[in-house]
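Encode chain A's predicted structure.
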Amino acid sequence: LNIISVVLSAQVVDNAIAAIFGQSCAINLTPFENVMTDSYGGTRSLPGSMDVISCINTNDLDGGNAWGCHIVLTMGFVTAAAMALPCGRWNLEDNMCIQTVAFGLTICCWLIWIAASLSE
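Encoded structure for chain A:
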């Protein structure tokens, strides 16, 4: 459960970075060619799959995911780690202000989501 939570958090931050800047970048630790096969049986190499440093739009993967089965260190992972790791140094009681702000942001996100759902 903890590993998938880290992966999902990194993917969400990568998608946010791609939404703001157009793409997210990563260091590819296993650069090899990813080949995509289309519905007609044709194959093509995915751009960026053999680059050590590559940037892709993680929100638009219709043309294939260049990082598909690679081991990558993404900007989303680094950003999520930079926010989470310092909080691990303190006891839960010592970082109550961070937890209170996170709870408030969660409630705000829920309210915005509910309001957007009701407005349609």
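The longest strand covers residues 24-28.
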